[in-house]
From TrEMBL:
InterPro entries linked to this entry: SpoVT-AbrB_sf (IPR037914)
Species per Swiss-Prot/TrEMBL record: Glacieibacterium frigidum
Protein name: SpoVT-AbrB domain-containing protein
Length: 92
């Protein structure tokens, strides 16, 4: 885990206190963080785990116009012996 120390100041922002975070971190504006205060003076921040966004198919539907549907005859596969079928026959 990479650890760096930087000096910064606490300032007033409205009715709250704020800390300026220097550039060069992997943090971005708007990230939601959990703040832990220990003994009234030690602060630690952890990012809140956001649920993963769901993929919106409606945004890409119809965008790949050169693709064709799979023909029904191309959906059929030949029967073949599977490894676990052979193993089951040898065990029994």
């Amino acid at each position: 885990m990479d650890k760096r120390r930087t000096r910064t100041r606490i300032f007033k922002s409205g009715n709250s206190l704020a800390v300026r975070i220097p550039a060069g971190t992997n943090l971005t504006a708007g990230m939601e963080m959990d703040l832990t205060v220990e003994h009234g003076m030690f602060l630690s921040f952890e990012p809140v785990h956001q649920p993963k966004r769901k993929f919106n198919v409606a945004k890409v539907a119809g965008s790949a116009k050169a693709l064709n549907y799979i023909k029904d005859e191309d959906r059929l596969f030949e029967e073949r012996a599977l490894r676990w079928d052979r193993e089951a026959d040898n065990d029994g």
